[in-house]
Amino acid sequence: MGSQTRVCPFPVIDLSDEKMKAGTEAWVSACRVARTGMEEHGCFVVRFDKVGESLCKCVVSAMEELFGLPVETKAQKTSEKLFHGYLGQVSWIPLYESLGIDDPFSMPACQHFANIMWPQGNNRFCERINEYAKLMGEIDHIAKRMVFESYGVDMERCKLMIESSDYLLRCQEYRPPKNDEDETGLQPHTDLTITSIVHQLNNLNGLEIKASDGIWRGVDASPSSFVVMAGDAFKVWSNGRIRPCEHRVTVSSHVKNLRYSTGLFSFCSNTFEIPQELVNQQHPLRYKTTFHHYDYLHFFDESKIKDLDTRIQAYCGISSNHE
Ligand SMILES: O=C(O)CCC(=O)C(=O)O
Ligand SMILES: [Fe+2]
C-alpha cells in the first residue's frame, strides 16, 4: 500500500526545488498551481524534504509513546475549543484516536502538553514534536504566501494572517479494522480551519480526497509529501473562490499496523476581513466582511450543520446566491 507509486492526482509543488524562491519564474508558476489546486480540489500536495526520514521515524516513535498511554491519561487533554482536546473511543469512528497539541511552535507549550501526559515531563518528545511542527509551519507559511500572491493580495495582510493565527498540531492514530469491521477511519468532512497541512507519517495510505470531478482519490504517503488543504475559513477569506477540501480516511483491513498521521491546523485567533482585492463585479461580496473564527467553531458545535455550504451560508452569508 504505502510504497505504491502512482501519479499524484492533485497538483504538486516541489518546495525542495532550489529554484523555488520568491520572485523566480518557478515561484510564480507554483503560486498559480497553488491557487488552481485550492479552487478546484481544495488542496495541493507539496514535496518538502526538510523533515526527512530520520525525523519522521523519531516522530513516529513519539506517537507510539503518546498513544500507548492509558486512555484516562490521554483524556486529560481537554480544551474549550472544539476538536482541540482528546478524541477517541467514539462509537461511530472506532478506529480513530487523536490528541491536539496547542501552539506547537513554542517549546514551553509543547512542555505544557507533555506535562499533562507525563507528570515528570518528556523532553525528548517535546524536542521532536517542536522541531517537526516548526518545519510543518514553514510549509503553512509558504502555502499561504503563494495563495495570497496569486490573488494579488497585499503581502502585509498575509503576514498579519500568519501572525494572528493559532496553530494546533493534531496527532492521529488509526488501528486496523477487526474482522468484518468497517474500514472507515474518518467520515467525509471539511476542516473548520484556514488551512490544514496533513502528513501521513508512517507511510501508510488512507487519506482520500474528493477531487473536482467528484471522485474520491487517495494520496500516496511519503516522508516528504504533505497535503495542503483549505478549510472552511479559507473559503470565506477568498470570498467563495476557494473550495474547502472534502476528505476522509479509509484504513485498509489488509494492513496490520497502526496508521499515524498529523495535521497542522491553523485558526485565526480573532477576526479576519475578506480582502478588497477579492471583491469585484464578477465576484460580489458573498459573506459578512468580518469573520470571527472561534465564533464559527462555536456555531458549528451548536448547529451541527453537516453540509458545508449551508453552514457557511447560515453563519455569515449575505446574499441568496447559493452555489
Ligand atoms: O489522518 C489523516 O490523514 C487526515 C486526518 C483528518 O482529516 C483530520 O484530522 O481532520
Ligand atoms: Fe480533516
TrEMBL record:
Q: Where is the Fe2OG dioxygenase domain?
A: 164-269
Extract the InterPro entries matched here: DIOX_N (IPR026992), IPNS-like_FE2OG_OXY (IPR044861), IPNS-like_sf (IPR027443), Iron_ascorbate_oxido_reductase (IPR050231), Oxoglu/Fe-dep_dioxygenase_dom (IPR005123)
The organism's superkingdom is given as Eukaryota
SUPFAM superfamilies, from UniProt?
A: Clavaminate synthase-like
* Keyword match Transmembrane helix: no
One GO term in the molecular function aspect is: metal ion binding
Which PROSITE patterns does this one have?
Answer: FE2OG_OXY
Q: Does the keyword Amino-acid biosynthesis apply?
A: no
Instruction: Give start-end ranges for the coiled-coil region(s).
Output: none
- Which keywords does this chain's UniProt record carry? Dioxygenase, Iron, Metal-binding, Oxidoreductase
Entry's family note? Belongs to the iron/ascorbate-dependent oxidoreductase family.
Report the function annotation for this chain: Probable 2-oxoglutarate-dependent dioxygenase that may be involved in glucosinolates biosynthesis. May play a role in the production of aliphatic glucosinolates.
Its recorded name reads Fe2OG dioxygenase domain-containing protein
